[in-house]
Write a structure and sequence with these properties.
By secondary structure, the chain is an alpha/beta fold. It is built from 12 helices and 22 strands. The strands form 5 sheets. It has a 6-stranded mixed sheet with strand order 8-7-6-9-11-10, sandwiched between helices.
Amino acid sequence: MRITIRTGEREFTTECRAGENLLAVLQAAGLNIPAGCGGRGTCGKCKVHVCGGSFGEEEREVLACKTSAEEGLIVRAGEYVGGGLTESAEERVECDGEEGFGIAVDIGTTTVAYALCDLKSGKILKKHAELNRQASFGADVISRIMSAEAGNGERLAEAVRGQIAETASRFLREFSIPALKKITVCGNTTMLHLLCGEDVSGIGRYPFTPVFTEFRSMPGGELGLPAGEVQLLPSVSAYVGADIVAGAVAAGLDREDALLVDIGTNGEMLASAGGKFVCTSTAAGPCFEGANIECGTGGVAGAIDSVRLNGGKIEYTTIGGGEPRGICGAGLVDALAVMCESGAIDETGAFEEGDQFTIGGGVYISQKDVRNYQLAKSAICAGIRILAERAGLNLAERTLYIAGGLGFYLDGENARRTGLLPAEGAEHQRVIGNAALAGTRMCMLSRAALERAIKLAAETEYIDLSADAEFMDAYIENMNF
């Protein structure tokens, strides 16, 4: 049977089975519908409007994940549109000078970023970023692991392979390039497994054992990608992936005593001291991607990305300048700082009056949102402190590199005010943007850089903080504002 889908200015029909889950139908049709909970009906982010069939002529708002497709159904869905961060600190790139063209790809949980390069000169011809199409299967890696175990592994693989192939083909047409010599990929360990169609169940449960962490090279045809070779950069462990390894290469952590943190769902971080490398990850949850924030969203068009108090009035900006449709991670940090400054919440995070803080345009922060932020920010900051201590780094003297999309747009003062970043050593905290993409490009252009990544991944010791008493103490101490 067929149902009709309306989104933006488009209207089209798609084939499906009667009774098929509507979220799955929309995913299969290529729509980027947010479903942070992975379709369990708990986040409320996959709302669409339906009419026709048993719903009658008047539109009703429903959760796509809890609705079945039926004959005559008309669905009006607001797709999320947006990109991601491709910018990074100035890169010192060595180049082997081989002939041909390649694409560096950073598969993030939320976004996928690309850099098309001339391999001979190292010149970047174009950068691009887009939302990860797997987002409809869950906002974080655990949700996607659960979705894969529920039978969606092939669809998850097809989603990310399809968008990489489409972007690569578009690059080829735009620059009249006959073929790609290589595609070099980084991502967290789960993203790389899903790309390859590998079993992710071992990553999701103790003892958290991935199928592979080593560097992989394969013909592009094996993954349906238009390149002679696909290279997957090495990971360290189940929850410290190739993205942080690539970022460490870009930041030069194998040549400097410093600490790198990528603020996201897993809070991956790696420290270098005296020629030794240690790393960890802290489960911050999908707070910064907006999945467990009532009005939360990713960094998409319409997301509130900054909030400030001006003369007692709340002012905010949105991505793209349009009407607000939610609040993203950078805006959330600002909002919490404003709430602290204005006295809307006390040092424990409790509301002084009422049960929510209104920003504007229907967007607000609830008491539950404050608690989720406290859990996430405390995990990140405590992880940074404990990893620095174990590595023997003094945060007041050594560089703390802050990578990733959230880190790039973060107001550092507000991040420190709310306890997301350590207060000490503020002058040594350096934002470096998408270091993962920068490092992946370096590894694609230079065999020496690739060898650095392989060596760094092999020599890095993983510290499990999940049952660490010192981490738990630091975590609890950092909970208040």
